[in-house]
Protein backbone atom coordinates (compact mmCIF):
# COMPACT_ATOMS: atom_id res chain seq x y z
CA UNK A 1 0.00 0.00 0.00
CA UNK A 2 1.60 3.22 -1.15
CA UNK A 3 0.89 6.88 -0.69
CA UNK A 4 -2.79 7.80 -0.41
CA UNK A 5 -4.09 11.32 -0.81
CA UNK A 6 -7.60 12.07 0.41
CA UNK A 7 -8.91 14.91 -1.70
CA UNK A 8 -11.98 16.73 -2.94
CA UNK A 9 -11.04 18.97 -5.85
CA UNK A 10 -13.72 21.46 -4.87
CA UNK A 11 -11.35 22.36 -2.04
CA UNK A 12 -8.49 24.74 -2.75
CA UNK A 13 -5.80 23.11 -0.60
CA UNK A 14 -6.70 19.77 -2.17
CA UNK A 15 -6.05 21.20 -5.61
CA UNK A 16 -2.61 22.50 -4.69
CA UNK A 17 -1.64 19.04 -3.43
CA UNK A 18 -3.13 17.29 -6.46
CA UNK A 19 -1.34 19.60 -8.88
CA UNK A 20 1.95 19.32 -6.98
CA UNK A 21 1.88 15.54 -6.86
CA UNK A 22 0.87 15.09 -10.50
CA UNK A 23 3.23 17.79 -11.77
CA UNK A 24 6.12 16.02 -10.03
CA UNK A 25 5.02 12.54 -11.05
CA UNK A 26 4.65 11.45 -7.45
CA UNK A 27 2.87 8.09 -7.43
CA UNK A 28 -0.24 8.17 -5.26
CA UNK A 29 -3.68 6.69 -4.90
CA UNK A 30 -6.38 9.32 -5.27
CA UNK A 31 -8.93 8.76 -2.54
CA UNK A 32 -11.91 10.81 -3.54
CA UNK A 33 -13.73 12.44 -0.67
CA UNK A 34 -16.96 14.05 -1.67
CA UNK A 35 -17.42 16.73 0.93
CA UNK A 36 -21.04 17.44 0.21
CA UNK A 37 -22.12 13.87 0.28
CA UNK A 38 -21.26 13.55 3.96
CA UNK A 39 -19.44 10.74 5.75
CA UNK A 40 -21.20 7.69 4.38
CA UNK A 41 -20.15 8.27 0.79
CA UNK A 42 -16.49 8.88 1.39
CA UNK A 43 -13.73 6.35 1.29
CA UNK A 44 -11.93 5.91 4.59
CA UNK A 45 -15.06 7.40 6.09
CA UNK A 46 -14.07 6.75 9.66
CA UNK A 47 -11.19 9.14 9.67
CA UNK A 48 -12.26 11.61 7.04
CA UNK A 49 -15.72 12.91 7.63
CA UNK A 50 -16.64 16.55 7.37
CA UNK A 51 -15.16 19.70 5.98
CA UNK A 52 -11.66 20.49 7.19
CA UNK A 53 -10.82 16.79 7.13
CA UNK A 54 -9.39 17.18 3.66
CA UNK A 55 -6.78 17.24 2.46
CA UNK A 56 -5.25 14.28 4.24
CA UNK A 57 -2.30 12.02 3.50
CA UNK A 58 -1.72 8.43 4.46
CA UNK A 59 1.70 6.90 3.94
CA UNK A 60 1.70 3.44 5.48
CA UNK A 61 0.93 4.04 9.15
CA UNK A 62 1.69 7.72 8.92
CA UNK A 63 -1.26 10.09 8.54
CA UNK A 64 -0.96 13.81 8.04
CA UNK A 65 -3.35 16.76 7.74
CA UNK A 66 -2.87 20.43 6.83
CA UNK A 67 -2.01 21.45 3.30
CA UNK A 68 1.34 23.13 4.05
CA UNK A 69 2.54 20.13 6.03
CA UNK A 70 1.52 17.76 3.25
CA UNK A 71 3.15 19.80 0.49
CA UNK A 72 6.41 20.05 2.45
CA UNK A 73 6.39 16.35 3.29
CA UNK A 74 5.90 15.42 -0.36
CA UNK A 75 8.61 17.82 -1.55
CA UNK A 76 11.08 16.34 0.92
CA UNK A 77 10.22 12.67 0.56
CA UNK A 78 10.20 12.74 -3.22
CA UNK A 79 13.10 15.19 -3.61
CA UNK A 80 11.23 17.50 -5.92
CA UNK A 81 13.17 20.19 -7.84
CA UNK A 82 14.73 22.82 -5.61
CA UNK A 83 12.67 25.78 -6.81
CA UNK A 84 9.51 24.45 -5.14
CA UNK A 85 11.04 25.00 -1.68
CA UNK A 86 14.53 26.43 -2.28
CA UNK A 87 17.46 25.31 -0.18
CA UNK A 88 18.70 28.90 -0.09
CA UNK A 89 17.55 29.97 3.40
CA UNK A 90 16.43 33.43 2.39
CA UNK A 91 14.34 32.20 -0.53
CA UNK A 92 12.99 29.41 1.63
CA UNK A 93 12.05 31.99 4.25
CA UNK A 94 10.14 33.93 1.63
CA UNK A 95 8.10 30.84 0.77
CA UNK A 96 7.44 30.24 4.49
CA UNK A 97 6.46 33.87 4.88
CA UNK A 98 3.96 33.69 2.05
CA UNK A 99 2.47 30.36 3.18
CA UNK A 100 1.94 31.81 6.64
CA UNK A 101 0.47 35.14 5.50
CA UNK A 102 -1.78 33.36 3.03
CA UNK A 103 -3.80 31.66 5.79
CA UNK A 104 -4.99 34.79 7.51
CA UNK A 105 -5.42 36.83 4.37
CA UNK A 106 -6.14 35.33 0.96
CA UNK A 107 -7.48 32.13 2.50
CA UNK A 108 -9.61 34.05 4.95
CA UNK A 109 -11.36 35.95 2.18
CA UNK A 110 -11.37 34.11 -1.13
CA UNK A 111 -13.34 31.04 0.02
CA UNK A 112 -16.15 33.23 1.36
CA UNK A 113 -17.16 34.11 -2.18
CA UNK A 114 -18.14 30.50 -2.75
CA UNK A 115 -19.91 30.25 0.58
CA UNK A 116 -21.94 33.34 -0.09
CA UNK A 117 -22.73 32.90 -3.77
CA UNK A 118 -23.31 29.18 -3.82
CA UNK A 119 -23.24 27.25 -0.59
CA UNK A 120 -25.34 29.39 1.68
CA UNK A 121 -28.23 29.62 -0.77
CA UNK A 122 -27.85 25.90 -1.48
CA UNK A 123 -27.81 24.80 2.14
CA UNK A 124 -30.16 27.22 3.77
CA UNK A 125 -32.56 28.03 0.95
CA UNK A 126 -31.99 31.70 1.69
CA UNK A 127 -31.30 34.03 -1.23
CA UNK A 128 -27.88 35.44 -2.00
CA UNK A 129 -27.02 38.17 0.54
CA UNK A 130 -25.56 40.86 -1.71
CA UNK A 131 -24.25 43.25 0.97
CA UNK A 132 -22.37 40.39 2.51
CA UNK A 133 -20.84 39.59 -0.86
CA UNK A 134 -19.84 43.23 -1.25
CA UNK A 135 -18.12 43.14 2.13
CA UNK A 136 -16.27 39.96 1.24
CA UNK A 137 -15.14 41.33 -2.14
CA UNK A 138 -13.78 44.41 -0.39
CA UNK A 139 -11.82 42.28 2.06
CA UNK A 140 -10.53 40.19 -0.81
CA UNK A 141 -9.55 43.32 -2.76
CA UNK A 142 -7.44 44.49 0.14
CA UNK A 143 -5.68 41.14 0.36
CA UNK A 144 -5.09 41.11 -3.40
CA UNK A 145 -3.59 44.59 -3.23
CA UNK A 146 -1.19 43.44 -0.52
CA UNK A 147 -0.43 40.30 -2.51
CA UNK A 148 0.57 42.34 -5.56
CA UNK A 149 2.46 45.04 -3.67
CA UNK A 150 4.22 43.01 -1.05
CA UNK A 151 4.61 39.49 -2.44
CA UNK A 152 4.44 39.42 -6.21
CA UNK A 153 5.65 42.93 -7.04
CA UNK A 154 7.36 43.02 -10.43
CA UNK A 155 8.70 39.50 -10.27
CA UNK A 156 7.68 36.60 -12.46
CA UNK A 157 6.78 34.51 -9.41
CA UNK A 158 6.50 35.22 -5.70
CA UNK A 159 10.11 34.46 -4.85
CA UNK A 160 11.68 35.41 -8.15
CA UNK A 161 12.19 33.79 -11.49
CA UNK A 162 10.84 30.37 -10.68
CA UNK A 163 7.59 28.93 -9.40
CA UNK A 164 7.46 27.70 -5.80
CA UNK A 165 4.90 26.27 -3.37
CA UNK A 166 3.89 29.86 -2.60
CA UNK A 167 2.54 30.46 -6.12
CA UNK A 168 0.73 27.13 -6.17
CA UNK A 169 -1.01 27.70 -2.85
CA UNK A 170 -1.99 31.22 -3.93
CA UNK A 171 -3.36 30.36 -7.36
CA UNK A 172 -5.71 27.58 -6.29
CA UNK A 173 -7.25 29.89 -3.71
CA UNK A 174 -7.79 32.65 -6.25
CA UNK A 175 -9.54 30.26 -8.61
CA UNK A 176 -12.31 29.79 -6.07
CA UNK A 177 -13.94 33.19 -6.66
CA UNK A 178 -13.43 32.71 -10.41
CA UNK A 179 -15.39 29.48 -10.21
CA UNK A 180 -18.37 31.22 -8.69
CA UNK A 181 -18.36 34.10 -11.14
CA UNK A 182 -16.26 36.69 -9.29
CA UNK A 183 -13.42 37.04 -11.76
CA UNK A 184 -10.76 38.74 -9.69
CA UNK A 185 -8.26 38.56 -12.54
CA UNK A 186 -10.41 40.70 -14.80
CA UNK A 187 -9.09 44.12 -13.81
CA UNK A 188 -5.71 42.98 -12.61
CA UNK A 189 -3.37 42.50 -15.58
CA UNK A 190 -0.32 41.80 -13.45
CA UNK A 191 -2.15 38.98 -11.66
CA UNK A 192 -3.46 37.67 -14.95
CA UNK A 193 0.08 37.45 -16.34
CA UNK A 194 1.28 35.71 -13.21
CA UNK A 195 -1.58 33.24 -13.43
CA UNK A 196 -0.62 32.42 -17.02
CA UNK A 197 2.96 31.77 -15.96
CA UNK A 198 1.84 29.51 -13.11
CA UNK A 199 -0.46 27.51 -15.40
CA UNK A 200 2.37 26.98 -17.84
CA UNK A 201 4.84 26.04 -15.14
CA UNK A 202 2.62 23.25 -13.76
CA UNK A 203 1.19 22.25 -17.13
CA UNK A 204 -1.99 23.77 -18.57
CA UNK A 205 -3.77 20.47 -19.01
CA UNK A 206 -3.13 19.46 -15.42
CA UNK A 207 -4.18 22.87 -14.17
CA UNK A 208 -7.50 22.73 -15.96
CA UNK A 209 -8.12 19.15 -14.98
CA UNK A 210 -7.66 20.08 -11.32
CA UNK A 211 -10.03 23.01 -11.73
CA UNK A 212 -12.71 21.32 -13.78
CA UNK A 213 -15.09 20.87 -10.87
CA UNK A 214 -14.81 24.35 -9.43
CA UNK A 215 -15.16 25.92 -12.87
CA UNK A 216 -18.37 23.98 -13.40
CA UNK A 217 -19.82 24.91 -10.08
CA UNK A 218 -23.35 25.11 -11.44
CA UNK A 219 -23.25 21.32 -11.33
CA UNK A 220 -23.04 21.67 -7.58
CA UNK A 221 -26.63 22.92 -7.46
CA UNK A 222 -27.65 19.51 -8.70
CA UNK A 223 -25.68 17.64 -6.09
CA UNK A 224 -27.72 15.73 -3.54
CA UNK A 225 -26.46 17.00 -0.27
CA UNK A 226 -26.40 14.59 2.62
CA UNK A 227 -29.33 15.69 4.85
CA UNK A 228 -27.31 15.13 8.01
CA UNK A 229 -24.62 17.43 6.65
CA UNK A 230 -27.20 20.01 5.63
CA UNK A 231 -28.66 19.99 9.11
CA UNK A 232 -25.23 20.29 10.68
CA UNK A 233 -23.99 23.06 8.43
CA UNK A 234 -27.07 25.25 7.93
CA UNK A 235 -26.81 26.99 11.35
CA UNK A 236 -23.06 27.48 10.88
CA UNK A 237 -23.70 29.09 7.51
CA UNK A 238 -26.52 31.24 8.82
CA UNK A 239 -24.12 32.53 11.45
CA UNK A 240 -21.75 33.52 8.65
CA UNK A 241 -24.50 35.64 7.17
CA UNK A 242 -24.70 37.89 10.20
CA UNK B 1 24.71 45.69 11.85
CA UNK B 2 23.58 42.27 12.97
CA UNK B 3 20.22 40.61 13.31
CA UNK B 4 17.37 42.88 14.40
CA UNK B 5 14.10 41.57 15.81
CA UNK B 6 11.21 44.00 15.87
CA UNK B 7 8.97 42.94 18.74
CA UNK B 8 6.25 43.93 21.11
CA UNK B 9 6.12 41.35 23.90
CA UNK B 10 2.40 41.90 24.37
CA UNK B 11 2.11 39.92 21.13
CA UNK B 12 2.23 36.15 21.34
CA UNK B 13 4.32 35.43 18.22
CA UNK B 14 6.81 38.10 19.33
CA UNK B 15 7.29 36.23 22.58
CA UNK B 16 7.96 32.99 20.73
CA UNK B 17 10.74 34.68 18.76
CA UNK B 18 12.21 36.33 21.83
CA UNK B 19 12.27 33.09 23.78
CA UNK B 20 13.68 31.10 20.87
CA UNK B 21 16.49 33.57 20.19
CA UNK B 22 17.44 34.00 23.86
CA UNK B 23 17.17 30.30 24.61
CA UNK B 24 19.55 29.50 21.75
CA UNK B 25 21.91 32.38 22.47
CA UNK B 26 21.26 33.90 19.08
CA UNK B 27 22.74 37.41 19.07
CA UNK B 28 20.16 40.00 18.12
CA UNK B 29 19.20 43.59 18.67
CA UNK B 30 15.82 43.93 20.35
CA UNK B 31 13.92 46.65 18.51
CA UNK B 32 10.93 47.45 20.61
CA UNK B 33 7.78 48.40 18.68
CA UNK B 34 5.07 49.60 21.03
CA UNK B 35 1.81 48.73 19.26
CA UNK B 36 -0.28 50.79 21.65
CA UNK B 37 1.64 53.89 20.67
CA UNK B 38 1.15 53.09 17.00
CA UNK B 39 4.86 52.54 16.42
CA UNK B 40 4.08 49.85 13.87
CA UNK B 41 2.50 52.50 11.63
CA UNK B 42 5.57 54.75 11.33
CA UNK B 43 7.41 55.29 8.05
CA UNK B 44 10.50 53.95 9.75
CA UNK B 45 8.91 50.63 10.62
CA UNK B 46 7.24 50.34 7.21
CA UNK B 47 10.74 50.00 5.78
CA UNK B 48 11.08 46.80 7.77
CA UNK B 49 7.57 45.51 7.18
CA UNK B 50 5.31 47.36 4.78
CA UNK B 51 2.36 45.34 6.13
CA UNK B 52 2.89 47.05 9.49
CA UNK B 53 2.85 43.94 11.63
CA UNK B 54 5.08 42.52 14.32
CA UNK B 55 7.11 40.43 14.62
CA UNK B 56 9.55 41.37 11.89
CA UNK B 57 13.20 40.57 11.26
CA UNK B 58 15.92 42.52 9.55
CA UNK B 59 19.20 40.82 8.71
CA UNK B 60 21.34 43.24 6.75
CA UNK B 61 19.18 44.16 3.78
CA UNK B 62 16.98 41.11 4.19
CA UNK B 63 13.62 41.69 5.87
CA UNK B 64 11.12 39.04 6.88
CA UNK B 65 7.68 38.92 8.48
CA UNK B 66 5.48 36.10 9.87
CA UNK B 67 6.64 34.39 13.06
CA UNK B 68 6.85 30.87 11.62
CA UNK B 69 9.03 32.07 8.75
CA UNK B 70 11.27 33.98 11.15
CA UNK B 71 11.62 31.07 13.58
CA UNK B 72 12.55 28.68 10.78
CA UNK B 73 15.00 31.18 9.30
CA UNK B 74 16.76 31.57 12.65
CA UNK B 75 16.78 27.81 13.26
CA UNK B 76 18.44 27.25 9.90
CA UNK B 77 20.84 30.20 9.94
CA UNK B 78 22.08 29.59 13.46
CA UNK B 79 21.90 25.80 13.21
CA UNK B 80 19.94 25.38 16.41
CA UNK B 81 19.63 21.88 17.95
CA UNK B 82 17.72 19.43 15.77
CA UNK B 83 14.76 18.92 18.12
CA UNK B 84 13.42 22.43 17.46
CA UNK B 85 12.60 21.45 13.86
CA UNK B 86 13.62 17.80 13.51
CA UNK B 87 15.30 16.61 10.36
CA UNK B 88 13.34 13.35 10.64
CA UNK B 89 10.74 13.58 7.87
CA UNK B 90 7.73 12.52 9.88
CA UNK B 91 8.60 14.52 13.00
CA UNK B 92 9.19 17.60 10.88
CA UNK B 93 5.81 17.07 9.25
CA UNK B 94 4.18 16.94 12.68
CA UNK B 95 5.67 20.32 13.56
CA UNK B 96 4.47 21.75 10.22
CA UNK B 97 1.04 20.27 10.82
CA UNK B 98 0.72 21.88 14.24
CA UNK B 99 2.08 25.27 13.13
CA UNK B 100 -0.52 25.32 10.36
CA UNK B 101 -3.50 24.09 12.38
CA UNK B 102 -2.89 26.41 15.29
CA UNK B 103 -3.31 29.65 13.34
CA UNK B 104 -7.06 29.48 13.08
CA UNK B 105 -7.60 27.25 16.07
CA UNK B 106 -5.48 27.88 19.16
CA UNK B 107 -4.26 31.31 18.07
CA UNK B 108 -7.64 32.38 16.82
CA UNK B 109 -9.65 31.29 19.84
CA UNK B 110 -7.11 32.18 22.54
CA UNK B 111 -6.63 35.71 21.14
CA UNK B 112 -10.36 36.22 21.09
CA UNK B 113 -10.66 35.63 24.85
CA UNK B 114 -7.95 38.19 25.52
CA UNK B 115 -9.52 40.75 23.20
CA UNK B 116 -12.95 40.34 24.75
CA UNK B 117 -11.77 40.34 28.35
CA UNK B 118 -9.10 43.03 28.22
CA UNK B 119 -8.36 44.94 25.08
CA UNK B 120 -11.77 45.80 23.69
CA UNK B 121 -13.22 46.95 27.04
CA UNK B 122 -10.11 49.08 27.45
CA UNK B 123 -10.71 50.78 24.12
CA UNK B 124 -14.47 50.95 24.34
CA UNK B 125 -14.58 52.08 27.96
CA UNK B 126 -17.02 49.32 28.81
CA UNK B 127 -17.18 45.53 28.84
CA UNK B 128 -18.79 43.46 26.09
CA UNK B 129 -21.98 41.50 26.79
CA UNK B 130 -21.25 38.40 28.91
CA UNK B 131 -22.52 35.97 26.25
CA UNK B 132 -19.66 37.12 24.03
CA UNK B 133 -17.09 35.95 26.56
CA UNK B 134 -18.98 32.78 27.31
CA UNK B 135 -19.06 31.92 23.62
CA UNK B 136 -15.36 32.62 23.20
CA UNK B 137 -14.44 30.48 26.20
CA UNK B 138 -16.53 27.64 24.88
CA UNK B 139 -14.77 27.82 21.53
CA UNK B 140 -11.38 27.95 23.22
CA UNK B 141 -12.16 24.86 25.26
CA UNK B 142 -13.20 22.98 22.17
CA UNK B 143 -9.82 23.61 20.53
CA UNK B 144 -7.99 22.87 23.78
CA UNK B 145 -9.66 19.48 23.80
CA UNK B 146 -8.46 18.92 20.25
CA UNK B 147 -4.99 20.06 21.25
CA UNK B 148 -4.85 17.55 24.08
CA UNK B 149 -6.43 14.69 22.18
CA UNK B 150 -4.89 15.06 18.76
CA UNK B 151 -1.60 16.87 19.21
CA UNK B 152 -0.24 16.39 22.69
CA UNK B 153 -1.89 13.06 23.58
CA UNK B 154 0.23 11.23 26.19
CA UNK B 155 3.56 12.50 24.96
CA UNK B 156 5.82 14.83 26.91
CA UNK B 157 5.87 17.26 23.97
CA UNK B 158 3.87 17.66 20.77
CA UNK B 159 6.33 15.82 18.56
CA UNK B 160 7.55 13.31 21.13
CA UNK B 161 10.28 13.38 23.71
CA UNK B 162 11.74 16.82 22.98
CA UNK B 163 10.52 20.39 22.84
CA UNK B 164 10.05 21.83 19.34
CA UNK B 165 8.82 25.02 17.70
CA UNK B 166 5.31 23.59 17.95
CA UNK B 167 5.36 23.59 21.77
CA UNK B 168 6.82 27.09 21.90
CA UNK B 169 4.23 28.58 19.55
CA UNK B 170 1.47 26.75 21.43
CA UNK B 171 2.45 27.90 24.90
CA UNK B 172 2.89 31.60 24.14
CA UNK B 173 -0.62 31.60 22.66
CA UNK B 174 -2.11 29.92 25.71
CA UNK B 175 -0.55 32.53 27.98
CA UNK B 176 -2.68 35.24 26.39
CA UNK B 177 -6.01 34.19 27.92
CA UNK B 178 -4.18 33.42 31.18
CA UNK B 179 -2.95 37.01 31.21
CA UNK B 180 -6.52 38.19 30.77
CA UNK B 181 -7.56 36.35 33.94
CA UNK B 182 -8.88 33.15 32.42
CA UNK B 183 -6.80 30.32 33.79
CA UNK B 184 -7.28 27.65 31.18
CA UNK B 185 -4.70 25.46 32.90
CA UNK B 186 -6.80 25.17 36.04
CA UNK B 187 -8.72 22.05 35.19
CA UNK B 188 -6.24 20.58 32.74
CA UNK B 189 -3.45 18.80 34.63
CA UNK B 190 -1.98 17.34 31.44
CA UNK B 191 -1.49 20.86 30.09
CA UNK B 192 -0.02 22.05 33.38
CA UNK B 193 2.60 19.31 33.28
CA UNK B 194 3.37 20.06 29.62
CA UNK B 195 3.66 23.77 30.36
CA UNK B 196 6.17 23.08 33.12
CA UNK B 197 8.26 20.95 30.77
CA UNK B 198 8.27 23.62 28.06
CA UNK B 199 9.24 26.36 30.53
CA UNK B 200 12.13 24.26 31.76
CA UNK B 201 13.24 23.40 28.25
CA UNK B 202 13.47 27.06 27.19
CA UNK B 203 14.68 28.33 30.53
CA UNK B 204 12.30 29.48 33.26
CA UNK B 205 13.89 32.89 33.62
CA UNK B 206 13.71 33.62 29.89
CA UNK B 207 10.08 32.47 29.86
CA UNK B 208 9.20 34.74 32.76
CA UNK B 209 11.03 37.71 31.26
CA UNK B 210 9.16 37.25 27.99
CA UNK B 211 5.82 37.19 29.81
CA UNK B 212 6.34 39.99 32.31
CA UNK B 213 4.48 42.65 30.29
CA UNK B 214 1.53 40.54 29.19
CA UNK B 215 0.98 39.27 32.72
CA UNK B 216 0.52 42.91 33.69
CA UNK B 217 -1.92 43.55 30.86
CA UNK B 218 -4.90 43.98 33.14
CA UNK B 219 -3.21 47.04 34.60
CA UNK B 220 -3.17 48.75 31.24
CA UNK B 221 -5.08 51.99 31.14
CA UNK B 222 -6.66 53.68 28.15
CA UNK B 223 -4.28 56.61 28.33
CA UNK B 224 -1.46 54.29 27.32
CA UNK B 225 -3.08 53.98 23.92
CA UNK B 226 -2.36 56.67 21.35
CA UNK B 227 -5.65 58.58 20.93
CA UNK B 228 -5.51 58.59 17.14
CA UNK B 229 -5.19 54.83 17.25
CA UNK B 230 -8.02 54.17 19.66
CA UNK B 231 -11.01 54.31 17.35
CA UNK B 232 -9.31 52.47 14.50
CA UNK B 233 -8.11 49.73 16.79
CA UNK B 234 -11.50 49.37 18.44
CA UNK B 235 -13.25 48.88 15.09
CA UNK B 236 -10.65 46.43 13.88
CA UNK B 237 -10.84 44.32 17.03
CA UNK B 238 -14.62 44.32 17.19
CA UNK B 239 -14.64 42.91 13.68
CA UNK B 240 -12.27 40.18 14.75
CA UNK B 241 -14.49 38.99 17.57
CA UNK B 242 -17.77 39.12 15.69
Automatic annotation (TrEMBL), chain A:
Compartment(s) where it occurs, according to its Swiss-Prot or TrEMBL record: Cytoplasm
Keyword Zinc: no
Name by which UniProt lists this protein: glutathione transferase
One Gene Ontology term of the molecular function aspect: glutathione transferase activity
Gene3D superfamilies: 1.20.1050.10, Glutaredoxin
Domain GST C-terminal: 88-229
GO cellular component terms, semicolon-separated: cytoplasm
Organism expressing this protein natively: Callipepla squamata (Scaled quail)
Pfam families given in the database record: GST_C, GST_N_3
Subunit-structure text: Homodimer.
The family this protein is said to belong to: Belongs to the GST superfamily. Theta family.
Enzyme nomenclature, EC number: 2.5.1.18
This protein's UniProt keywords: Cytoplasm, Transferase
Coiled-coil regions listed in the entry: none
Record-level GO BP terms: glutathione metabolic process
Domain GST N-terminal: residue ranges: 1-82
Catalysed reaction equations from the record: RX + glutathione = an S-substituted glutathione + a halide anion + H(+)
InterPro entries xrefs: Glutathione-S-Trfase_C-like, Glutathione-S-Trfase_C_sf, Glutathione_S-Trfase, Glutathione_S-Trfase_N, GST_C, GST_C_Theta, GST_N_Theta, GST_Theta
UniProtKB/TrEMBL annotation, chain B:
Listed GO biological process terms: glutathione metabolic process
EC number: 2.5.1.18
Superkingdom of origin organism: Eukaryota
Residue ranges occupied by any GST N-terminal domain in the UniProt entry: 1-82
Catalytic activity: RX + glutathione = an S-substituted glutathione + a halide anion + H(+)
Keyword Transferase part of the UniProt annotation: yes
One Gene Ontology cellular component: cytoplasm
GO MF term set: glutathione transferase activity
UniProt keyword list: Cytoplasm, Transferase
Main subcellular localisation: cytoplasm
Subunit description: Homodimer.
Protein name, as recorded: glutathione transferase
Organism expressing this protein natively: Callipepla squamata
Amino acid sequence: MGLELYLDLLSQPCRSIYIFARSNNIPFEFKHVELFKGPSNSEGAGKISLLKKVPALKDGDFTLAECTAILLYLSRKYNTPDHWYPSDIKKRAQVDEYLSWHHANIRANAPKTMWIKVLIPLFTGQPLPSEKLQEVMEGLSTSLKQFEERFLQDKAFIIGSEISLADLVAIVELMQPVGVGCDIFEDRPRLMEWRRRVEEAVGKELFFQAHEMILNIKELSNIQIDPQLKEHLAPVLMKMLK
Amino acid sequence: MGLELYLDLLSQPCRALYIFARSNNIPFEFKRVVLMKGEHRTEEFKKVNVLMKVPALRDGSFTLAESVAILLYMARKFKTPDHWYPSDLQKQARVDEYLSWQQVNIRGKASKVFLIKVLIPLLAGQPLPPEKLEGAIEELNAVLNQFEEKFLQDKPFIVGSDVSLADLIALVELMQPVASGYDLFEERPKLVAWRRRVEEAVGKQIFQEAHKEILNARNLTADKIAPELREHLKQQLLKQVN
